[in-house]
Amino acid sequence: MEAVPPLARAYAACAALAALACLLPLPGLPVPWWAVLALAAVAAACDGLVRRHGAGPFYPVLLAAAFLLPPPAAALVPLPGALLARAGARPEALRRIWRAAQLALAGWAAARVHGDLGGRDAVVGRDFPYALLPAAAAVTAFCLVLTVLDGGIRRLAAGSRPGGRPRGAAVRHARCGRFARSLAPIAVHGLGGLMMAVLWRSRYGPVGALLVLLPMCVSWWVYAQYHRERAAHRATVRALVQAVDLKDGYTRGHSERVGRASVLIARELGLDDERVETLRFAGILHDVGKLGVPTRLLRKDGPLTPEERRVIELHPEYGHEMVRGISFLGEARSAILHHHERLDGSGYPYGLCGAQIPECARVVAVADAFDAMTSTRSYRRARPVGAALDELERCAGTQFDPRMVAALVRALDRYGWHPAVTADENTPNTPKNPNTPNTPKNPNTPTNPAPVPESPGPPR
Q: What are the TM regions of this chain, as residue ranges (predicted)?
């Protein structure tokens, strides 16, 4: 997987050179090498431990180094752990160097801000609450450097793919979102690092400082178990989606994109992170009930009989039964059951109308229809995003919830959308029947919620 774009490689190389420059000693600032070696060893051990248990990054030791050491020495502390740890993906050497450069630059910036604000004197004198102010500024600088560097390489990696370069507003919004989400956990690490630094400078010395790590390691172990459980949830969802894709190849990739569009709508509505994740699962699994529908009906050429249509329209109920016992899905189960309901009561399986339809189902219905219209299938061309949004707005109030449609419009204006081919790789440039450009191979198959019948919409 040596597919790192040249610009991203150059960006990582520049970061590595900047990190090397940060290691140059500052005149008049002696380096306590024994403290550097001790903190580097502890940081490497902690990093290996949390990686082995699948938890996220562990920064208290690095931030303690920023509070205790001069900037060049603080930049040295993360290098052994970052350079020796397993990268987890190729190219390993480049990823290790990139990670080491990130942490070295962040540690240098945090130590520089902390020192310029007189933080090291406050730590030595245990001057509270003043010691909290430079520590908070240092934590903010640490988080900001990590966010900016990470956002830059993500943008370069995305921009190397055709149609992958995000717009400036989207990049700025994504960076602000990542910074806001990262600051709180790093601030907790900063408190642990400050406690380590204060104890290190106290009469208890380094041994007392290391005792601070015990409760933090225990809490991180608990978090690792939660992280593993979430990973198991995602694996369960992936397995179900892969089974659906294998059975109904004409919508391959559709479920993942519906999950992505559902997340865009949910975030635009201001839902909390837990509900956003639930709606992502709902979007991904909305068609899982197809596993209970005979394959011959999903792939049948020509129109379905009324009886065959009734069988296919049972797929939301099949899906609900399949996931009934998966407790972590929560309200996603009701979205799977009701995503084909319509606001005017003409949908299925129960003909619910208006507020009777669960909110999560109304989100998935809009995401489902949007992706159906903007995806190229082997039997028809995709509609432009603007045309699909116009169709959704036209059907708002009768088929779709206007609030969900408006949220999707705002989200796409901010982030954009990149439709993808969802059937065969060699999809022709023109539909198989040029006289019916929007007619699916099986026009009666209700694979997606369609706009009202009087308009040419996505397949049913």
A: 7-26, 32-50, 57-77, 128-149, 182-200, 206-224
